[in-house]
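Fig. S4 source data, part A: sequence.
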Amino acid sequence: MTSLPTTLVLGGARSGKSIFAERLITDSGLERIYLATATAGDDEMAARIARHRQQRGAGWATIEEPLALVEALAREASSGRAILVDCLTLWLSNLMLAERDVAAESHRLALALSEIETPVMLVSNEVGLGLVPETPLGRAFRDAQGRLNQIVAAAVPQVVFIAAGLPLWLKRPAQAM
């Protein structure tokens, strides 16, 4: 087993974020927990979720939690485990649709990440690199995603940006440099 620091894995859609995060956990030799935030609201999303499960393969315990992420992390954190949260973008969307206090939930998540000793890989989309969204809701989501990513990046020891399946390390512990 190797030491695995909690890591925020950022990137665009289909950049290879999830595969990269899965590989980090698989290579660690720790028990693998997949904390899924997606909900199957339609047939396309249900098929996408099924495809992700099949691609991950055996060896992952899947926990589905679209809203209570902090509570799920506290419940699943234990020695010998690593948790993959896939993804913060869908969690944020779920929070906004449920009219939750996104800022408060973001800070609760950052606090939880600083308190648990279990390594967590958090997958999140970087949505601020493209066009300005046309709608007020789209712009509010883009802004909230940027703030969430900043809060989590400040709270974790390691941050990596994935582009075309390749990692660009933005933040690493001093001993890993």
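Fig. S4 source data, part B ends here. Residues 96 and 137 are 10 Å apart (CA to CA).
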